[in-house]
Write a structure and sequence with these properties.
Structural class of chain A: alpha/beta
Structural class of chain B: mainly alpha
Bound molecules: adenosine-5'-triphosphate, magnesium ion
Number of strands of chain A: 14
Oligomer: heterodimer
Shape of chain A: elongated
Strand content of chain A: 25-35%
CATH topology of the largest domain in chain A: Rossmann fold
Radius of gyration of chain B: 20 Å
Largest sheet of chain B: none
Order of helices and strands of chain B: HHHHHHHHH
Number of strands of chain B: 0
Distance between the termini of chain B: 25 Å
Shape of chain B: globular
Strand content of chain B: under 5%
Radius of gyration of chain A: 23 Å
Largest sheet of chain A: 6 strands, mixed
Chain lengths: 305, 258
Amino acid sequence: MSSKPLVVKNLSKSFKKKTIIDDLSFELDKGKIYGFLGPNGAGKTTTIRMLVSLLHADKGEIIVNGHNLKTERSKALSSIGAVVENPEMYNLMSGTQNMQHFSRMHTPKISQDRINELVNFVELSGAIDDKVKTYSLGMKQRLGIAQALLHKPSILILDEPTNGLDPKGIRELRSYLRTLADDEGVTVLVSTHLLSEAEMMCDEVLIIQDGKFVKQFSMNEKTESEEQRVKALFRATSNKELIPVLEKYGTVEEDKKYITLSEIEQDQIPTIIKEASDQGILLYEVILKDTLEDQFLELTGGEKA
Amino acid sequence: MSSLMYNELLKTWYRNGVKWFLIIVLGLYLIISVSLRIFLNEGALPSAESFLITSQMLINGTFLLFYGVIITTSSITSEFHKGTIKQLAIRPISRLSLLGSKLVSGFLATLMLMVVFNIIIYLVSVLLFDASSASENLLVTAALACLYQIPVYVFYLCLSVIIGTLFKSTTVAVVLFFVIDTAGGMVTGLFQLLDWNASYFIYPNLTLEVYSDNEIISNQAMVMGGGEGLLFSLTIIAVYSLILAVIGFYRFQKQDIA
Ligand SMILES: Nc1ncnc2c1ncn2[C@@H]1O[C@H](COP(=O)(O)OP(=O)(O)OP(=O)(O)O)[C@@H](O)[C@H]1O
Ligand SMILES: [Mg+2]
């Protein structure tokens, strides 16, 4: 038996003979925040639905804290909290009533103290006795997270939780998730189709495309070895004259406005600028881009930026 | 299970406007009863027993039955429409218990309403109308008439479960309710016309009152015809209910919740 919070093995699912999830395998470690990344239609929601037993997998296994979701469904589900797609609640009931409603679905009994604690955690105390139909989307998202945490799950799964959140809301969400992962050892899986979001929020990223596993890597690894690698776009008084200078550092691409070096060390930029100005070429702009973005688009078959 | 049922009853209270159903139907009933008492002249007034049994037929057999179907079906369909079904189905609770709690709560809600309504019906009947010449004890009659109705609720609520899970539409449930309720009589008539045995068809078995020794109850029901015997009819109801429920539960168990 594995001690990992979540192990997914060879998961497959078809809808009407169309394969949506294709032999997907991955594992999550305790207390980390994972970005579940893939373009629209990659199969993120479908995978999540299978993880929480809304969909029955055609093939493969889902093991939650050593419990097989298929054969030990209740045990497996008692350590998962989730919001799948939109945080739908009972609109005619208040936030408190919704929380109590969901708390009654767990054993052992969940105390009112736990409910209050979570309501404070997601900063909803002020509106918790209002009917949910008066809530903004952001408030519903927060209530959704609170109700998913009622039974102290060791895995929290959120499907595009930043949907409809403003920058402040996103920042708050990030801090909630950080607290959960760091202080309570909760493993968090957040799906998103934005790499930038995953980079800000997550420890590791898991990329899928067309229902297939593409790549899993840690953000920390990246900060150590890959942080220095950037893509640089230059605009100079004379782009033509700049090309020979840049060619010494790597492969050069040219478009109407910029000359692009697809991958260089960040440390080399000042040297390049100095060298150019020594030759009388002045630079208007240098834009540095994360190489990850390109990798992601390349991996997922999107256009190169 | 009891906390699941508490949840369902709570949601029913908010979702189905139970408060308004009670206020409106009881209000109308009281207004009509009092008006009859005031405006009909003494000779035309119905006796307490006939007022009681007519009220029960109308309210238990139509209003409550219909409302029970709506409560039970919508407890399933509305969760699908609003998407809250996901929040239920990801809990460490079997789908069997989830749907079971809905069926049982629908039944309990209908029973509770039945108790409230029939107490009022009984009081109105004996207080406003003449009960002195009643051929049977009216309290016993009122309670018995309710008992005969209960298996019918079971059948219709099982029907609600299957409609809720298969069609996910309260409208379909409502339409089907009327179709079965009205076409049932016609189909039975047709069967009899063609000299076929209609006993195994559900409809004639739903009028259990015909088997009662209580004359107030059986006289009222005689016009509707009836089946072969109480035990026979109860068995037919049980078999139909079981089949409907099994299909509904099986479907809910297997389905992908999108
Ligand atoms: N019930 C269904 N029946 C048929 N096809 C489906 C069903 N659900 C999903 N699909 C298909 O599966 C594919 C993956 O969908 P899914 O919702 O999992 O993608 P996603 O990665 O969550 O995308 P998004 O970023 O848009 O949310 C899509 O092509 C979709 O059309
Ligand atoms: Mg999705």
